[in-house]
Amino acid sequence: MRKNKRRLDAAMKNSLLFAALASILIVMLIGVFTFREALPAFRDIGLEKLLTESVWRPGEGQYGILAMIAGSGLVTAGAVILGVPLALGCAIFLSEIAHPNLRALVKPCVELLAGIPSVVYGLFGMVIIVPIVRGIDMPGNTGFGLFSASIVLAVMILPTITSVAEHAIRSVPKEFREGSLALGATKWETIQKVVIPGARSGIISAIVLGLGRALGETIAMIMVIGNSVIIPAASTGNPLSIFLSRARTLTGNIAVEINYATGLHESALFATGVILFVLIMIVNSSAKYLMSHGNTGKNR
Amino acid sequence: MIIRKLKQNFAFTAMWLSCGFTVLILLIVVGYVIIKGFAHINMDFFLTPPRGGLSGEGGISSTIIATVYLVITTLVFATPLGVGAGIFLVEYADNFRSRFVQKLVVIARFGVETLAGVPSIIFGLFGYALFVTTLHFGFSILSAALAGTCLVIPVIIRTTEEALKAVPDSYREASLAMGAGKWETIWKVVLPSAITGISTGIVLSAGRIVSETAIFYVTLGGSYRTPTSLMSSGRTMALHVYYLAMETRAFDKALATGAVLIVLIIILNLVINTVSRWLST
Predict the structure, then answer these.
(1) Model confidence over B201-224: pLDDT tens digits?
(2) Closest Cα partner for B82 from B190, B164, B193?
(3) pTM to 2 decimals?
(4) A47-299 CATH, one of 1.10.510.10, 1.10.3720.10, 3.30.390.30, 3.20.20.120
(5) B269 at the A interface (CB within 8 A)?
(6) Which among B18, B88, B126 has the least Cβ separation from residue A90?
(7) Which ipTM value was assigned to this complex?
(8) Cα distance from B202 to chain A (closest Cα, Å)?
(9) Which CATH superfamily is domain B46-280 in?
């Protein structure tokens, strides 16, 4: 009886260890496999050519992903510009201003916004936002493009940034606020000069996390960005018209072409994946670094 | 003082507005899709399969079956692995004396975190390369479920870890003091009190699979026929929305399917919220 028990303990311990190791195995498999498939592209095309050439014509052996990098970069920038002020306003409101009852009502809404499938955002973008953007009178404007994609993406990263930033703001100790209020500062001055600086690193990492989500979004982007492989350029003298240009993201490039690609073309798509993976790893680890090493209110 | 007060009023109004605007966005997106979508929903919509072709005629019956099929298959793979890894990390990881195992544990934690941040199309790319082509599973429920497993494992591990950490140590000590073995303690004492938390993670994962599109776009194949085995190709509801919008332009049917998806997600969210509220009281 006793012996059986001990044997069961050891068996369970080992099988649980195996389950934990499976997560290492998966990461390694993903890394090894993606990189192995990308190797021919890195060898035959070269990293430099991949990153700096702007022409992507797999039929003619031209594989430059600069246009996709520009597309991903611009649409992410657009989403951050549109989404961050809204998200931070929302985060400050929820943590500092809102009555607990109102907060209990709004918080699930923000969570639901995060739960809506990206394909539904894409559909909404196609049906509502693209026709509105098409109304802007500019040459070559089809409605599909960076501007529509930025709007859709801004909504998609809003809940991520809001909830992480709100958490950071709430973890600023109460004494900070009380001290500031006791010195005669108004509530807004307290928020502006004490609370926000105290939560600065958490807020920045919230934005960086949102950026990571934006870079990784695929389906919604395919649906509204137009998917043309061109480096976005302004169509008129107004530099903002660059956002009416069609574009393609790194993620979209993979999803649209992988199922029929073969040979070097397929390998170039895996190389796109590797570059995206490295980009996101850099973004996410800088967010993590900021969270653990930044001067949040608590450990100052 | 008046100016400072004015500044405050101005700033607070801006915060109020940004929050109101966020809620408004939610209401517009959800409201529009549900109202427009429900206009095209009737019993036939649920009971007939899509007829294919460019018109986008037919219902969504086969896509509902494919979605359920895929969710169940994914959870069958992901739940034992994820829950097992979670139990190991909380209950066993710190008791190992061997340096080697300790290092492995550190790497495993890092691995889970990395997985959680990887964009889903990378899982799709990986799943396509390994399961669809190299292992010759083809475009199938099996390939898609294995790729989906990579997506949800970090979710399940994290929620399991949190649920286990919330169980007071005194429970474990009492059980061990009464002569129960380590595993007996976990099985009969720790797991029963953590089970609601763990199931939250599993429901959350089901939601992720239901709403994920990119991974399945490159691993599931997109056939609108009813899947009959693990090796058959298929099309989840989310994928159906994509195909309808991009290939047929049957936006009314796409909105109707999207509305069904949103209602499903709202229900899953309600389940999770109720469970966690029940947990905290």
Answers:
(1) 999 999 999 999 999 999 998 888
(2) B164
(3) 0.91
(4) 1.10.3720.10
(5) yes
(6) B18
(7) 0.90
(8) 15
(9) MetI-like (1.10.3720.10)
